[in-house]
Amino acid sequence: MNAHSASGHEHGHGHGHGHGHHGTDIDWETMATELENKADLQLPVSRETAARLRKLLGAGSTGSGTAVRRILDIGSGPGVMSCVFAETFADAEVVAVDGTPALLDRALARAERLGLGGRVVVRHAELPEGLTGDDGHGEGGLGTADLVWSSKAVHHLGDQQGTLDALAGVLRPGGVLAVAEGGVPMRFLPRDIGIGAPGIQARFDAAQESWFTAMRSELPGSIAVIEDWPAMLGRAGLTGVGSFTSFLDLPAPLDDAARAFLYAHLTRVRETVSESLDAEDRRTLDVLLDPEDAAGILRRPDAFLLFGTTVSTGVRPRR
Fold first, then answer.
1. Ranges of each domain in the chain
2. In Å, how far from its chain's centre is CA 315?
3. What is the pLDDT of residues 36-58, one digit of tens each?
4. DSSP codes of every residue in 105-136
């Protein structure tokens, strides 16, 4: 698996990420800068999420809770959330797990910049096979952990329930599996933007959902499942399942970093799903991507950024 967190991946993850053609393959290394930029934008949400998970685990409480010594970030990408966990859980080793070596290099570099070197380690692994293979340290696969985190990664594997079962299986008793999937789709433009037909974001969404459905159908061993994530965590043998949603809300006018992220997002829309749009919407998309046009995403004053990320959690019974 090459799938990454952008909160993680992101997530407002979006389903139109490809690498310059209209297929459903994803070149994660090419997307590295975009992934890291988006994760940086989401840092307030990521820190809020880590704090909520800390509270759920009871870390730091006297006489109760789970002492968090080891965390697995599954599909870590450039390691932004891995570093947030290292900051939040001061006594834990955080293992960034990903299938793209270049992104793991970014994770290590980021940890060093933040003074977290030695507390954030990386592991190259293709999943789900990498969870149970020999890790060279006397434990199967990636070893066990008190917290397993995965953001926008499980949906890139054919058997989503099987993957959750495997992730739950590496939890230590009392440990928590937290999976960021679903949420509220990203919004960044008014309904009527003054060019083309109103409601273009809804049409982008429809095209991206078609892309996503095709991507899922092409995955090895793809199995259709009702994506009720708390119920799926329950079927994985976890208890106390639930969910919470955190919102990133950046009002207009946006700063340069947020605009650059949206420009990259719209570029990906054009690369992956523009053939599904009609001629008028393609023309509108070209205007939005024109850096010199006042109606383009890099210059228009009404662009904002709003989306919600839903995290589903479950606890491994102590016995």
1. 32-315
2. 21
3. 888 899 999 999 999 999 999 99
4. HHHHHHHHHTT-BTTEEEEE--TTGGGTSB-S
The per-residue pLDDT for range 176-226, each reduced to its tens digit, is 999 999 899 999 999 999 999 999 999 999 999 999 999 999 999 999 999
* 120 phi, psi to nearest 5 deg: -110, 120
Across the range 71-82, mean pLDDT stands at: 96
Of the candidates 228, 244, 232, the residue with the CA atom closest to the CA atom of residue 311: 244
**pTM across the whole model:** 0.88
CA-based radius of gyration for the chain = 20
Angle (deg, nearest 10), helices 200-218 and 256-273 = 60
Instruction: Please state the length of the chain.
Output: 319
Out of 3.40.50.720, 3.30.420.40, 3.40.50.150, 3.90.380.10, select the CATH number for domain 32-315: 3.40.50.150
Closest C-alpha to 175, from 56, 46, 311: 56
Write b or e for each residue in 98-133: b if 16 or more Cβ atoms lie within 10 A of its Cβ, otherwise e: bbbeebbebbbebbeeeebeebbbbbebebbebbee
